[in-house]
Structures are given as structure tokens and as C-alpha cells.
């Protein structure tokens, strides 16, 4: 339970960090909160030769409103606990606020970063599913420049993202909640703070009594956060009701092919996906009307 | 009896040091020049070692030595057999013990193959990774029931099969009651018990001082004296040349008893060979594969009852998993066999068990030590019989209790201590009544509470007895030092049980000294080297009574001396606040410290035969173990959509005879219940068909957290043990034993509309889903998308 030998850099500026990444690319890993990377290194499952610690880069922290309030931008190195308690997040991206307590434990959220969780791309992580449900976008930076990656393009496989080895995730932008919107998150885990056996994030927008827009994303049912277009299709254009929600939730099994592991069989996961989808949709609908 | 300290809920003397991080643990021991040790362990469950190449590891800078079995020469011996074959007629027993480093063959994942000594643990681990071991894999024996199939590979080549033991014990004649019985309930049960997962893993520091010719060992052992004696023998040293210290230990629970683990045997040898102190601290990944487990038993059992629900007889046949070696003998299955009988009058009993070797980590006692398995079988059988007879679960138990006048009750079986299974005393009904009241059975039945539509509630109650406080003996030395400090030294190790307080209370009571002023030392063989150790809920019973006896002897000495000095008859004296004084006359008093100085004259002459000091060393050994008992009850809520289970209330009514410190007892019970809940709903060691451990980290091996464990509401019944002067019975394992049985009963009750029988532990939401959906009729709901 001791990591193999590695070199360690702690750049003081973002430029410095990006140069180091450009130079070392494949052999290097950036270190954010270390709550996933360091255990993996101690198990010798991850063996980066070089660690580039982002801890000193104030350019990568902070939460602000942009575009006349349409979006909220969260710096990748912002600690999860800061996001959880931030008034802008609570008010304008309440789905994130609601989800944060499900991520690990307060001690871990004090160290773990928002961007670290997104970049780590654990299929059982909550925040990637929330990013997908919200339709946010990710800002990737490298020495050569920057680019935006939409949420649905960001996750490319098991623990894989669209980030290149010489790129890092600098920030994400999430759309602010608007009138007529409802949202909810829930999950089932063995113990509070555990990675979920299954979890669902949903966002609905209604106008004149019908669902105009919807998005539903699940975690722990595939290689990464998993969208549920079949559910959305049933919801959009319809007046929300308990019956509609139930029919839509049942359709979630068409969008997932969950894996089995020690804690949940595929059948149990499908069952949970239906149950939890129904629960979040019910809560989201309540929020629209309430 | 009016007491001053004994029986009072005093806060623990040791907590300040423990909670402020100032207590000594093995990893705190740092010695000049100390080297660090890491192990190369087997990645295979079963295989032949073809080649070991340590060259690359040896060449790594900072590596001091690498050893394999070859290098150990004659020191490469199997560990001792800690408990021989039980004196049971017809018992078959083929013990095979672990070796310090695997030679020729590996028999479980994690078995050590080579050991690296280096300047740091980091270097040692890097080097261990560079050791090349070529292993020809053999099929692994994983399945208990398949272990004895003729075409299953043999784990120990010199044995005829993987049979480790076979034992039959009986009383009366079960077969004769089957025909007479009103009902015979017969089922197959599966009970798996997890790992101890102590907060502190194992650790050893060994330091050989060639000039002093002394070997010092700090070891996370529950039995330092046994370890000292054993290691001295192996290393060719006199016992007096070896000091074993078991300092504070972050939880023992059984696996730290006196295993002579490979690491325990190797570190002293390495230190003697290299002449430097060496340290090994087990990490969590190692703990999962290298520290002993407890695991599954499969029982086929039957209960015969008459029309009133009276037990006519029980029959049980089970298989027990020994793992790769069984140095601890048959303690665990014998506990299962004997504890099954519980507080009940069972006139006819036949129990047969088969122990098999498997390619898994060794099985040795872990808190409860097989008692869980037996209690589960008996309690479930009673529940099933109650259902068939239309009796309620409380009533069937009440009807079968041994009555208060049945004691001592000899079951005619041989127990784990190899003496006969005799219950010393007991009074079971008052505990049942209290528990029924505390959990509010009546309130539950009336269904007063409101619950969400997709949730169901259930309630349960179970009983158990626990054989505790077994021999042979322990000792204690009580000294009033001239400084006025009172010291109490015993040989047992301590792993959080509160010995520094309980023993101080026992001694303080007799010599009138506030327990906070009494210094208790445990587990240092240089200060006390007679005794067996801390296990089988025996510390308070056996060492506690030794402390009591020694305190009485010192009290006598104090009274004699003080009587002479104060010129008063001994009967007129009292011992209060660290003084001996004439009753009610504080002016006529003498401090105990002053007495101690006077008892150690520096000049002049003493009467021939005078012993110096106010000191006594006294021993206590009970005739046999004392039998504690109790009743647990709980209310659960099951979410029918997610299959999650929440424990709403938990009640324990417990009888461990006389209570030394109710606060400590409460802690013991609460901690035991937490481990029991882990066993029932969270923890299970899982192996693949190839013998690989599938959940060897706390990511996948789930321990219950403070949020999953309810506060236990407790009460006591006190039925003193006649077998020791203090009337104490053990309490260490009581909290953990019946939780699985209770959980199954309560969840089954919550799911009563589904008609499910729960015949296995542990459960999980996933398992409940499977149990409910794999059945005919229900299976279709999943597919139809209800
Ligand atoms: C006991 C425990 C329980 C946990 N439970 C949960 C849970 O329930 N849900 C959950 O979602 N998580 C859980 N976690 C993980 C936790 O949320 C981590 O904080 C998170 O996954 C990673 O964030 P980090 O900042 O610690 O990243 P690190 O561990 O430092 O890095 C993780 C990976 O992401 C990469 N990375 C980090 N930041 C960037 C960046 N800006 N750009 C590019 N790559 C980057 C790193 O190189 C590394 O590969 C748990 C962790 C622990 C220890």
C-alpha cells in the first residue's frame, strides 16, 4: 500500500502546469484533490511517473455567473465542499447543490475537487451524470490553446474522457435554472457516502402544462454517465401525471445495459433504474408545479 | 452490597491517552537503525512453486536482505498446533499448520513466499514487487461441499483428502423422538461470518540486542505470554531472554490471539540474524488475505417439537471451512455445535460436523467464534416451528427455556475448553420479559405507527447463551508502591476492553484507592509472565478475579501492618482514600504509600520470613466457563422498491452476572451489535472460483458505519456465576452473537405478506431482491415491468 516511485511538480501558474503537461503528457497525471488518484497509486493500480499538482493554481478555482446570469461557471479545482455550500450554486444550479451530499463524505469533499470528479470519469460518480443531465460544457486547456467540449461528448468510455494527455479540465459551465423547471437527484447506495448501485439525475421544463424539455441521466449502469432518451421521448409534449411518470420511468430499461458486480446484479440494477427514475421524475414534476 | 468503585459507571482511565493520540501502539515504536519489512505474497490460491528469483530485489538500492524458505534452514517449521484433537470419542482430526514462508506449494492467496528487509517500507515494497515467482497453478478448492469430491485436488498432498476433521456429539437419542414428534421442521441453512477488520492491523517490531542477549518484541497479540514462550523455543532462547510487549492494540476480536503468524515468527529471526531492529506493519490489503478470517458453514438441521411447541430434539449436520491450515483446531465448529442449544431444554441432540480444507485464508475465532452460526440455526428452527404451530415467536421460546432451578445444567457435551458443557447459572425469562417490553411488541402489533406505502415493518426477538470465561487461569500482581501509586499487573493483553479501568475498580474496591490512581499494566511479559491471554470473553472473569484475589491479599497485609502501627484491632480499621484509618477517626490514619515504605526497611532486622512490601501475586482459575445469556430484539423497515433495510430500534437485555462497570459493558454490547449488524447485512468475504478474494478492500468489503448502526437500548439481569468470587460472566462477544438470527427473523416478519423464508446470512438489498424475484410467480414481475 505504498505507491511506486514518481516525480512531483507543483507549478505556481497555469502556464507552467500546461508546459509541464505538454512536455510529459503520457507519463504524467495531474493531481487535484487526490481522493481517487492517491488510493489508486497506493494500490499500485495507477503508476504515473510524474505528478503535476494543481493545488496552487488559483486560476482554476472559483464560482461565478456568466452571460447575464444564463450560466454558472465552476473552476475545476474548486473543492466539492465549496460547491456544495456556495450560494450561487444553491440558487442557480440547485440540481448540483442537491446532489453534492451524495458524493462521498464531508471529509472527502473537503479535499476532492469538482473538476477532479468530472475528469476521473468513474461510472459510479454522481457529478458526471449531473453534468450530462444539465447539458453543461467543459473547458479544456493545453499549452496550444483551449476548446469547449459538450457534456455528451466529454465521456468516451470507462474512466475515459475526451481530454487529450496534454490537456486539463479548467472549468465547466452549467446552465442556470429557469422558470417552469423542475429537477431532482437520487441514488441507492449500500451505505451513505458509498458509490451508488444506481443513481438518476433529471431535469424537466414545462410550459403551458406540458413538458417542453427533459433530460435524464443515470450513473452506475454503464461505462459512464448514461442518458435516457427513451424516457425523455415519452415525457416531452405530454402533461405531467403520475401515470406518465410511471410509463416513462419503465422505459429507462431500453436505454441501459447495466453491468453486474458484487453488490448488484444487472436485473437488480434495472429494477433500481426504474424505481429511482420514477422517484426523481415525481420529485421534479412536484417542483415544477410547486 | 454497598460498593465504592466496583459496579459503578466510571469513565475509562485510558481514554484520555487514547483519544489524544498519546497511547503507545506498535507502529509508534521507533528504534535506532530500524529496518522495514515487506512480504512477497502468493497471487495464486493453489499452485506449485517452480522458481523464485530474488536477484533484482536484492540489487535494489536500500535493500538489506531477501529471504525465502530455503534461507530459513531448520527454522522453517510448521507453526504449533494451538489446540489438539478434542477428547471426543471417534473424533477425526488432521491438523496442518501454516509455515513461515511457502515452500514447494502455495495454498491461499496472500500466503507469504519471500520477505524483503530494506531501509524503508517504500523500498521494501518496490523490491518485493521485483521478486519473480514462477507458480504452476492448480485448481483451487473453494466450494465447501465440493471439497471432499474424489476428483477435487488435494491441498495437503500427504493427506488422503481435504478432510480436516469430523466430529459427532450427541445426547439422548434424536431418532427416537422423530416418530413421536408432532412436527419436525427440517431446513438447510447458510451462515457466513466476515472478518474482524480491526481498526489497527497487525504489526511487529523485533529487536535483538546481542550485547544484552535479549530479544524484545512489540506485537499486536492478544496473548503475549504464549508468544514469548513459543518464540523462545523456536529461536533456542530461554524464555527469560525474550520480552514480548502487547501495547495498546486497536482491536483484537480473535484473529490476534496467539497465531504464530508467519510474520510473527520471521521478524524476531530476522532481527537476530541481522542484528538490527526490524518493523513490519500490516497494511489493509495484506490484512484481508493474511490475517485469519471467519467464514461460512452450511447446516442441514431438524427440530422435533410436540403439539405445545416443546422441543423434543434437534439434529444438525454441518460443514465448516478451515481455510488452508487449521492451527487453532476445532474451536469454531465446536462452539457452533455447543452454542446451538442456547437457553433451551433440548433433551435429544445429535450434531455432526465435517471440517474441510479450502484454498482460502485460515479460519480462526472472531468475536462469537462460530456461536453465531449455531444460534442462527436454532433460532430460525424455532421461528419456523412457531409458524407451523401458530405460536408467536416469544411464546415458543418461553416454553422451552431451562427453568431457573435447572442449574448447574450439564449438557453432556464437550465444549471448546475440552471440559464438559455445563451452564453454571441462568435465569432466562426475566430477560425475555424485559426485552418484550422495551421493544414494545404490543405496540407493534397494534400497528400504531404510520409508514410510507412502499415500506414494510417487522419485529423480531431472539435468545442466546454464550460460554465465557474459560480457564485455565490468569494471575495478577498488586503492589502499593512507596510513592503511593498502586500498580496492577496482569499477563493478558488489552485491545480496547477497558482493562485499565475495570481492573482498577476491582482492586480499588478492596484497598480503598480511587481507580483513577491505580496504574494497570497489561501484556508485558517482563512484568508478568504467567497466564493465557485475552480471548473467549475471559479477561474480566479470569484476570478480573485474579486481580480481586491479589487485592484481597494486599488488603490483608495493609490491615496487619496498619493495625500494628495504629495500635488498633484490624476489625476496627477501614481503607479509604488511599489511607488505612481507624473507622470514623480520620486523625488516626496512615497513607498507604507510607505503609509501603515502612514495609521495605532499609536498615536493621526483620522477623524471619518477612516478605517486603505491600505486594501480592495471586492466581485464579475457574472450574469451567461461566455461561452468560441474553435477548436481542429489533424493529426494521424494508423498502419494497429498493430492498434496503433500516433498523429502527434495537434492544439488548443481557445477563453477564455481576457487572464491574456498566458503561464499559454498554460499550462492549454496542460494539458487538455493530459487528453483528455488519455480519447480518454488510460484510461478506467473497472468493472467485479460482480462489481469488474478490472484495479485499473497504471499497467492496462493507463495514457498517455510525449511520448504519442504531443506538442500542439496553437493560440487565444479574445472575451471578457461582464459579468465581466476583460472580462475573464474560460479556465480550454477547453483542455480536445473535444479530444475524434476529435480522433474518425481523426482515422475514416485515416481508410476511410475501411469504419468504430467510435461511441465510448475510443479506443485502441485492440478495433480498434475488430471493423475492427468483421465486416462481414473482420472477415474472421483473420482466413485465411492474
Ligand atoms: C471513501 C471515498 C468515497 C468516495 N465516494 C464517492 C462517491 O460516492 N461519489 C463520487 O463521485 N466520488 C466519490 N469519491 C471520489 C471523490 O469524489 C474524488 O474526490 C473524485 O473522484 C476525484 O476528485 P479529486 O479532486 O480527488 O481528483 P484526483 O484524485 O486528484 O484525480 C482523479 C483523476 O482525475 C484526474 N484529474 C483531476 N483533476 C483534473 C483536471 N482538472 N483535469 C484533468 N484531469 C484531472 C487525475 O489526473 C486523476 O486521474 C470517494 C472517494 C473516497 C476516498
Can you offer a commentary on this structure?
Helices cover 35% and strands 26% of the residues of chain A. Chain A has 290 residues and is an alpha+beta fold. The mean pLDDT of chain A is 97. Chain B is α+β, with helices and mostly antiparallel strands and 786 residues long. Chain B folds into 3 domains: 26-138 and 196-290, Aldehyde Oxidoreductase, domain 3 (Alpha-Beta Complex), CATH 3.90.1170; 297-470 and 623-778, Aldehyde oxidase/xanthine dehydrogenase, molybdopterin binding domain (Aldehyde Oxidoreductase, domain 4); 471-620, Aldehyde Oxidoreductase, domain 4 (2-Layer Sandwich). In chain B, 27% of the residues lie in helices and 26% in strands. Chain B has a 7-stranded mixed sheet with strand order 3-6-1-13-10-11-12. The radius of gyration of chain B is 28 Å and the shape is globular. The model of chain B is unreliable at 777-786 (pLDDT under 50). Chains A and B meet through helix 12 of A and helix 4, helix 8 and helix 19 of B. The complex binds flavin-adenine dinucleotide (FAD).
Topology:
The complex is a heterodimer of chains A (290) and B (786).
Chain A: E1 7-9, H1 14-24, E2 28-31, H2 37-42, E3 50-53, E4 63-66, E5 71-75, H3 80-85, H4 87-92, H5 94-99, H6 106-111, H7 114-120, H8 126-134, E6 137-142, E7 145-150, H9 151-154, E8 155-157, E9 160-161, E10 168-175, E11 181-188, E12 198-207, E13 210-219, E14 226-227, H10 229-235, H11 242-250, H12 266-289
Parallel strand pairs in A: 1-3, 2-3
Antiparallel strand pairs in A: 4-5, 5-10, 6-7, 6-10, 8-9, 11-12, 12-13, 13-14
Helix pairs in contact in A: 10-11, 11-12
Chain B: H1 15-19, E1 35-41, E2 47-53, H2 55-59, E3 63-68, H3 69-72, E4 92-93, E5 105-106, E6 112-118, H4 121-130, E7 132-137, E8 163-171, H5 174-178, E9 183-191, E10 203-209, E11 214-219, H6 224-235, E12 242-245, H7 262-274, E13 278-281, H8 284-290, E14 297-305, E15 311-323, H9 331-339, E16 349-357, H10 371-389, H11 393-400, E17 409-414, E18 420-423, H12 428-439, H13 441-445, E19 455-468, E20 474-480, E21 486-490, H14 499-511, E22 518-522, H15 539-566, E23 573-576, E24 579-582, E25 585-591, H16 592-598, E26 614-620, E27 626-639, E28 645-655, H17 662-682, E29 712-716, H18 739-750, E30 760-761, H19 765-773, H20 779-784
Parallel strand pairs in B: 1-13, 9-30, 11-12, 15-16, 21-22, 28-29
Antiparallel strand pairs in B: 1-6, 2-5, 2-7, 3-6, 4-8, 8-16, 9-14, 10-11, 10-13, 14-15, 17-18, 19-27, 20-21, 20-26, 23-24, 24-25, 27-28
Flavin-adenine dinucleotide is lined by residues 29-37, 39, 76, 103-104, 108, 112-113, 115-117, 119-120, 122, 125-127, 163, 168-169, 193-195 of chain A.
Amino acid at each position: 500500500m505504498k505507491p511506486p516511485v514518481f516525480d512531483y511538480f507543483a507549478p505556481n501558474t497555469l502556464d507552467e502546469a500546461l508546459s509541464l503537461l505538454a512536455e510529459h503528457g503520457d507519463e504524467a497525471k495531474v493531481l487535484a484533490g487526490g481522493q481517487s488518484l492517491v488510493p489508486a497509486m497506493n494500490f499500485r493500480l495507477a503508476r504515473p511517473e510524474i505528478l503535476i499538482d494543481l493545488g496552487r493554481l488559483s486560476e482554476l478555482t472559483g464560482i461565478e455567473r456568466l452571460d447575464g446570469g444564463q450560466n454558472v461557471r465552476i473552476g475545476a479545482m474548486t473543492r466539492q465542499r465549496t460547491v456544495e455550500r456556495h450560494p450561487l450554486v444553491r440558487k442557480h444550479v440547485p440540481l448540483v447543490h442537491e446532489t453534492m451530499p451524495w458524493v462521498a463524505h464531508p471529509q472527502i469533499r473537503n479535499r476532492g475537487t469538482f473538476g477532479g470528479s468530472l475528469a476521473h470519469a468513474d461510472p459510479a460518480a454522481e457529478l458526471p451524470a449531473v453534468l450530462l443531465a444539465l447539458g453543461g460544457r467543459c473547458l479544456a486547456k493545453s499549452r496550444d490553446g483551449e476548446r469547449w467540449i459538450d457534456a455528451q461528448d466529454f465521456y468516451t468510455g470507462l474512466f475515459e474522457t475526451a481530454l487529450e494527455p496534454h490537456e486539463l479540465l479548467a472549468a465547466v459551465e452549467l446552465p442556470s435554472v429557469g422558470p417552469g423547471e423542475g429537477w431532482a437527484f437520487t441514488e441507492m447506495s449500500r451505505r451513505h457516502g458509498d458509490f451508488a448501485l444506481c443513481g438518476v439525475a433529471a431535469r424537466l421544463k414545462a410550459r403551458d402544462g406540458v413538458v417542453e424539455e427533459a433530460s435524464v441521466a443515470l450513473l452506475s449502469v454503464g461505462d459512464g454517465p448514461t442518458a435516457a432518451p427513451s424516457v425523455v421521448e415519452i415525457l416531452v409534449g405530454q402533461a405531467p401525471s403520475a401515470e406518465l411518470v410511471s410509463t416513462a420511468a419503465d422505459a429507462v430499461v431500453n436505454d441501459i445495459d447495466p453491468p453486474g458486480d458484487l453488490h448488484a446484479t444487472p436485473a437488480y440494477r434495472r429494477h433500481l433504474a426504474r424505481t429511482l427514475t420514477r422517484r426523481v421524475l415525481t420529485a421534479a414534476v412536484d417542483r415544477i408545479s410547486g | 452490597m454497598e460498593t465504592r468503585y466496583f459496579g459503578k459507571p466510571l469513565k475509562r482511565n485510558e481514554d484520555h491517552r487514547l483519544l489524544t493520540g498519546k497511547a503507545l501502539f506498535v507502529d509508534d515504536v521507533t528504534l535506532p537503525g530500524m529496518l522495514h519489512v515487506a512480504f512477497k505474497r502468493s497471487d495464486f490460491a493453489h499452485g506449485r512453486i517452480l522458481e523464485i528469483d530474488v536477484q533484482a530485489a536484492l540489487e535494489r538500492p536500500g535493500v538489506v536482505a531477501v529471504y525465502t524458505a530455503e534461507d530459513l534452514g531448520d527454522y522453517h517449521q510448521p507453526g504449533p498446533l494451538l489446540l489438539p484433537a478434542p477428547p471426543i470419542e471417534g473424533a477425526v482430526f488432521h491438523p496442518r499448520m501454516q509455515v513461515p514462508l511457502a515452500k514447494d506449494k502455495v495454498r491461499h492467496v496472500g500466503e507469504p513466499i519471500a520477505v524483503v528487509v530494506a531501509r524503508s517500507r517504500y523500498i521494501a515494497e518496490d523490491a518485493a514487487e521485483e521478486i519473480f515467482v514462477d507458480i504452476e497453478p492448480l485448481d483451487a478448492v473453494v466450494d465447501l461441499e465440493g471439497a471432499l469430491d474424489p476428483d477435487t485436488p488435494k491441498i495437503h498432498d500427504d493427506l488422503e483428502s481435504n478432510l480436516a476433521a469430523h466430529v459427532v456429539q450427541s445426547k439422548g437419542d434424536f431418532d427416537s423422538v422423530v416418530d413421536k414428534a408432532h412436527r419436525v421442521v427440517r431446513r438447510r441453512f447458510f451462515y457466513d461470518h466476515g472478518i474482524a477488520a480491526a481498526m489497527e492491523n497487525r504489526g511487529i517490531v523485533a529487536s535483538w540486542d546481542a550485547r544484552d542477549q535479549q530479544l524484545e518484541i512489540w506485537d499486536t497479540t492478544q496473548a503475549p505470554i504464549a508468544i514469548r514462550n513459543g518464540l523462545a523455543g523456536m529461536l533456542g532462547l530461554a524464555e527469560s531472554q525474550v520480552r514480548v510487549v502487547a501495547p495498546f492494540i486497536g482491536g483484537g476480536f480473535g484473529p490476534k490471539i496467539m497465531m504464530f503468524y508467519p510474520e510473527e515468527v520471521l521478524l524476531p529471526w530476522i532481527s537476530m540474524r541481522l542484528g538490527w531492529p526490524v518493523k513490519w506493519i500490516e497494511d489493509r490489503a495484506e490484512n484481508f488475505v493474511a490475517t485469519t478470517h471467519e467464514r461460512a458453514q452450511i447446516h442441514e438441521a431438524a427440530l422435533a417439537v410436540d403439539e405445545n411447541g416443546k422441543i423434543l430434539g434437534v439434529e444438525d449436520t454441518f460443514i465448516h471451512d478451515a481455510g488452508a491450515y487449521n492451527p487453532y483446531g476445532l474451536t469454531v465448529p465446536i462452539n457452533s455445535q455447543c452454542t446451538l442449544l442456547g437457553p433451551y431444554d433440548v433433551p435429544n441432540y445429535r450434531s455432526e460436523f465435517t471440517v474441510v480444507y479450502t484454498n482460502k485464508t485460515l479460519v480462526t475465532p472472531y468475536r462469537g467464534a462460530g456461536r453465531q452460526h449455531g444460534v442462527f440455526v436454532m433460532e430460525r428452527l424455532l421461528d419456523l416451528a412457531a409458524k407451523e404451530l401458530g405460536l408467536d415467536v416469544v411464546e415458543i421460546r418461553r416454553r422451552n427455556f431451562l427453568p431457573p432451578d435447572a442449574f448447574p445444567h450439564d449438557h453432556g457435551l464437550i465444549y471448546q475448553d475440552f471440559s464438559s458443557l455445563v451452564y453454571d447459572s441462568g435465569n432466562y425469562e426475566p430477560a425475555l420479559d424485559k426485552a418484550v417490553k422495551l421493544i414494545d411488541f404490543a405496540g407493534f402489533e397494534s400497528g400504531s405507527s404510520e409508514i410510507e406505502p412502499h415500506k414494510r415493518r417487522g419485529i423480531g426477538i431472539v435468545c442466546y447463551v454464550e460460554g465465557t470465561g474459560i480457564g485455565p487461569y490468569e494471575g495478577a500482581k498488586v503492589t502499593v508502591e512507596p510513592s503511593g501509586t498502586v500498580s496492577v499487573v496482569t499477563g493478558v493483553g488489552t485491545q480496547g476492553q477497558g482493562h485499565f479501568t475495570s481492573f482498577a475498580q476491582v482492586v480499588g474496591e478492596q484497598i480503598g484507592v480511587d481507580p483513577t490512581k491505580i496504574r494497570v499494566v497489561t501484556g508485558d511479559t517482563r512484568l508478568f509472565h504467567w497466564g493465557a491471554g485475552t480471548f473467549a470473553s475471559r479477561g474480566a472473569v479470569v484476570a478480573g478475579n485474579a486481580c480481586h484475589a491479589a487485592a484481597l491479599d494486599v488488603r490483608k497485609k495493609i490491615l496487619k501492618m496498619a493495625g500494628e502501627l495504629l495500635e488498633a484491632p484490624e476489625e476496627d480499621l477501614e481503607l479509604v482514600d488511599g489511607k488505612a484509618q481507624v473507622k470514623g477517626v480520620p486523625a488516626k490514619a496512615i497513607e498507604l504509600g507510607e505503609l509501603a515504605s515502612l514495609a521495605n526497611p532499609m536498615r536493621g532486622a526483620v522477623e524471619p520470613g518477612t516478605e517486603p512490601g505491600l505486594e501480592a501475586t495471586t492466581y485464579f482459575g475457574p472450574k469451567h466457563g461461566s455461561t452468560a445469556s441474553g435477548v436481542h430484539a429489533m424493529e426494521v423497515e424494508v423498502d419494497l422498491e429498493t430492498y434496503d433495510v433500516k433498523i429502527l430500534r434495537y434492544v439488548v437485555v443481557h445477563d453477564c452476572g455481576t457487572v464491574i462497570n456498566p458503561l464499559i459493558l454498554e460499550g462492549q454490547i454496542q460494539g458487538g451489535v455493530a459487528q453483528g449488524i455488519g455480519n447480518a447485512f454488510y460484510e461478506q468475504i467473497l472468493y472467485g472460483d479460482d480462489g481469488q478474494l474478490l472484495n479485499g478492500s473497504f471499497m467492496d468489503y462493507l463495514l457498517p458505519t455510525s449511520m448504519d448502526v442504531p443506538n442500542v437500548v439496553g437493560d440487565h439481569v444479574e445472575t451471578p456465576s457461582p464459579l468465581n468470587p466476583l460472580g462475573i460472566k464474560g460479556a465480550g462477544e454477547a453483542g455480536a452473537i445473535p444479530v444475524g438470527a434476529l435480522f433474518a427473523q425481523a426482515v422475514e416478519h416485515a416481508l410476511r405478506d410475501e411469504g419468504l423464508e430467510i435461511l441465510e446470512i448475510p443479506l443485502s438489498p441485492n440478495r433480498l431482491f434475488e430471493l423475492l424475484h427468483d421465486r416462481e410467480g414473482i420472477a415474472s414481475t421483473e420482466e413485465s415491468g411492474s
